[in-house]
Structures are given as C-alpha cells and as structure tokens.
Structure to design on (522 residues):
C-alpha cells in the first residue's frame, strides 16, 4: 500500500469520525421529533401559571461594539424596546470603537436615557482582551442577576426576555448557568452566499444544540442571543481573553464547574450573516483558531474532570470539530494525484466505500435541518454552494488550526464588517441628528485579501488541470472528486477577488472624475 493510499484512508477516517458523531446526533434528533409529535400537548409549568405574581430577576443587557457605525443605533434601539419591567432592566453599551460609532452610540444612549431607561455607554480607549475584555469590564458595574448578551448585528425580538425568563422559566432551575437561543438570519435570502451560510449554521442550531441540551451533554454558548447567570460567570473564572472564542471557553469552564447549559430552539434571535466571501472567510478563521485554542486549554481540564467517559468523548469531538478541515485539505491535495496513478485507487480496501459514504451524513443533517423549517426545496438549490464553501474554506481554516495549536498568543480579534444601513427600520425610532442620518450605507470597513487567495486559486487550477488530463484519457467520470475541489477553491478565490476588482474599478473611476474637474478648479 503506497503513501498516497495510506494518507487517503487516514483523511477519510478522520472525516468519518466527525460525520458519525453528526449522524448520531441526527438520529437522536429524529427520534425526539417523532416522540414530540406523538406526545400530548405540554401543559404550562407551575412557574408559568404563577408568573403573574413571581418575582422576576434583574437583568443587565450587554451590547459589545467595535466600529459598528451601520448597526450600532439599531441594536441599541432593539435592546431598549425589549418587553421587561424597566425597574428591573439595565443596558450597557460596551464601546471599544475608534471611529464615529462612539458618537452614534452616545446619541442613541442619551435618547433612551431621556425616556427613563437605565442605559449607559461604557467606552474603552483600549481593546485589551477584545470582546472578552469589554464584557468583563462591564460586569464591574452590572447590577443584574442575569446577563443577556447581543452582538451588534443581532435584533432581539421584543418578547425575548419574557419568553426565556418568564415563559420558559429556565432559570427557575438553580443549576442552569446559561441559556442559548436559536440564531435566525435577517439576510438569509440576500444572496446564494448568505443562504449557504444559513444552511451550514442551521445544522448546528437546529440539530446539534437541541440534542446536546436534551441529553445533558456539554454544549456551548454562541456569544450572542443568550443569557448568563452572573454567579455562573464568576464561579467559572469570568471572561478570559486567552482564546478568540471566549464564549466556547467560558461555557465549558462553567459546565465543568457543575453548571448546566440550556438551549431553547423555539426562541429565535435574528442576526446578520457576512455578505462577502472574504468577510465569511475571516469570521470562520477566527472561530476555527479560537476553537483550537480551546482544545489546547480545555482538553486537560476535561480529562481531569469527573464527567462520565461518554460525556468526555462527545466534548472532545465537539470542540475539536474544526480539525476536520485538515482532512479535507489533505484529500484535496492527494485525490487528484491518485487519479493520475490508477494503481493507487486499486490499493484501497473494500470497506473504503462505506467509510466514504459515512462522510455524507452531515449533508443529510443539513437537509433535515432545512426540512424541519419547511425549507427542503430551497435547500436543493443552496446545497452546492454550501459544499463549495465548506471545501473551499479548508485551506484558510487549516492554517487557523495550525495557528491555534502553535500560536503563543490568542491573536487579533478581527471583527466581521456589517453593511446594514442605520436607516433600517428600528423597533423604536431614534431621532438622530442630520449628520448621523447622512451616514451612507456603504462598506467603509474594507477587508484586505492576502496570500491565501492566491494559494486557493493555485489549488483550484491544480485540481482542474488534473481533471482535464483524466478526461483526455477517457476516464472523465472518475475525475468528479477532483472537479469538486477545483470548483470549490476557484469559487472561493474568485468570490474574494471579484469584489476587490470592482472596488478598484470604482476607485479609478472616482479618481478620473476628480481629475476631469481639475482644470475648472484653477
């Protein structure tokens, strides 16, 4: 058995492990759905019946901002419109911005403070600790027993607190340390890119989180659209910035301390998806690097804990999921070479086909997640783009895995640009001054491509060239796997290059217009 064959088997085996884990969660999800359909309608809990007289907890809402001029006003207005007794509500706008976001946020905060709301702007001149540092800093003056967190690109529904705290009554259980709700997507149908991202995310939010919560397995707080019990944060060691995924880190530390996480699939908190390939790529790289940093930090802690063995195993698979990108990248490199050397394909064992089939279970999970939302037909249109994104990002994410394993520091927290105009409809209108309302709905936070775009392009050309060679030999069907890699890497690379070219053309046109006016200005 040659080296290419061995590497191929290893890569497919790694993917099969993660796919089998996904398939197990899918099977449990389907069983739970079937039981829910056949079970009688649930009655209101005792807490729900007496909710009119129960003492509600004080809640602090934290809104971390960093250069969010397009959405700052919207999230402040949305949080201020939440249906909860005002005497029990505190809102903290945690602003680390270096642009005019601070001015926009200050105006919105003053508007709602004048209406009697307990809302304050906390500005830091340093981004020390990034988001984790901002959240920890806000806790110094937080008065709430519960801490709700919303990122700037989210729009919590008006009844969010009522549904989580009063109707679901999850915090009536003193063991619950945090609650996560399901992410919705306000721009899901804006493009094939955002639709594909929604499909990838829904697999986690519809299936994985639901099953983990139901079985009492370790789950994660997703950083936004959730509520923490203040004492759980403190007892777990607080927010820490030694990883780029402070949410995953804290949620595991809290659960290892004995707190429980709960997931509410029926409560949806809409957020905005990145609307460019480059923005999505950078977001995924940050999530990947941060998750791998959590592997380094948490694996020893999990091993020493008194968790049951199967809880430990599922936790290991859960937080190490991004390692699968290394296997995808390895397959992208060796599969085309194996197509050129037909003898390598002959060395594959008979059970290899079954192992490869297991790797398709995540696609089935995506389908079920969309089916459960009544989106099965749109899924068939979007799935090719979702697969292309998943495969095409493997180079960038693999580099992030390596950086997470070897990096001595957590690295820079690169924010994901939001391009929604502040003139969007708000739950509560903020009468901003004229200057703020003139803020253009244009991307001023431009992201720069790097050498990885060229590497992705070369990987795509490499796979495509071998496809052509194999087709010339008369074995075109066998080249389909390499064609998938070619299309994925080329698609992701072009998705980053084309917007940059359009911006450059626009800049040249702008300069030409300015130059044409110069004579008249003399």
């Amino acid at each position: 058995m040659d080296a290419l064959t061995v590497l191929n088997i290893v890569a497919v085996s790694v993917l099969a492990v993660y796919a089998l884990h996904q398939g197990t969660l899918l099977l449990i999800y389907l069983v739970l759905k079937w039981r829910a359909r056949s079970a009688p309608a649930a009655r209101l809990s005792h807490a729900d019946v007496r909710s009119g007289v129960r003492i509600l907890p004080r809640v602090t809402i934290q809104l971390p901002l960093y250069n969010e001029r397009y959405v700052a006003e919207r999230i402040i207005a949305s949080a201020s419109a939440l249906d909860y007794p005002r005497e029990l509500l505190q809102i903290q706008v945690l602003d680390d911005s270096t642009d005019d976001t601070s001015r926009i946020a200050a105006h919105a905060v003053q508007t709602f403070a004048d209406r009697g709301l307990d809302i304050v702007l906390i500005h830091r001149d340093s981004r020390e600790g990034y988001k984790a540092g901002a959240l920890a800093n806000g806790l110094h003056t937080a008065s709430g027993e519960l801490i709700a967190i919303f990122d700037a690109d989210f729009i919590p529904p008006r009844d969010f607190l009522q549904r989580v705290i009063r109707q679901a009554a999850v915090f009536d259980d003193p063991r619950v340390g945090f609650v996560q709700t399901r992410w919705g997507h306000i721009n899901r149908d804006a493009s094939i890119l955002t639709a594909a991202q929604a499909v990838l995310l829904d697999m986690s939010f519809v299936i994985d989180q639901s099953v983990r919560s139901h079985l009492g397995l370790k789950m994660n707080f997703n950083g936004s659209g959730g509520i923490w019990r203040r004492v759980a944060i403190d007892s777990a060691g607080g927010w820490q910035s030694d990883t780029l995924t402070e949410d995953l880190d804290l949620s595991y530390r809290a659960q290892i301390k004995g707190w429980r996480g709960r997931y509410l699939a029926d409560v949806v908190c809409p957020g905005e998806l990145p609307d460019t390939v480059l923005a999505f790529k950078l977001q995924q790289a940050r999530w990947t690097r941060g998750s791998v940093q959590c592997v380094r930090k948490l694996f020893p802690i999990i091993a020493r804990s008194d968790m049951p063995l199967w809880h430990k195993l599922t936790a290991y698979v859960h937080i190490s999921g991004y390692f699968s990108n290394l296997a995808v990248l390895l397959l992208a490199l060796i599969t085309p070479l194996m197509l050129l050397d037909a003898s390598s394909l002959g060395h594959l064992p008979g059970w290899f086909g079954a192992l490869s089939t297991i790797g398709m279970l995540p696609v089935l999970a995506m389908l079920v997640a969309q089916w459960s939302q009544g989106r099965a037909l749109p899924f068939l249109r979007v799935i090719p783009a979702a697969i292309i994104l998943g495969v095409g990002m493997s180079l960038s994410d693999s580099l992030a895995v390596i950086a997470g394993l070897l990096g001595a520091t957590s690295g820079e927290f690169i924010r994901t640009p939001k391009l929604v105009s502040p003139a969007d409809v708000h739950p509560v209108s903020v009468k901003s001054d004229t200057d703020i309302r003139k803020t253009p709905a244009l991307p001023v936070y431009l992201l720069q491509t790097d050498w990885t775009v060229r590497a992705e392009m070369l990987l795509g050309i490499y796979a495509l060239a071998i496809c052509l060679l194999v087709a010339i030999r008369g074995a075109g069907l066998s080249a389909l796997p390499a064609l998938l890699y070619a299309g994925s890497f080329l698609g992701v690379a072009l998705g980053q290059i084309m917007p940059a070219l359009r911006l450059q053309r626009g800049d040249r046109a702008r300069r030409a217009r300015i130059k044409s006016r110069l004579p008249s200005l003399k």
About this structure: Residues 450-515 form one domain. The longest strand covers residues 260-271.
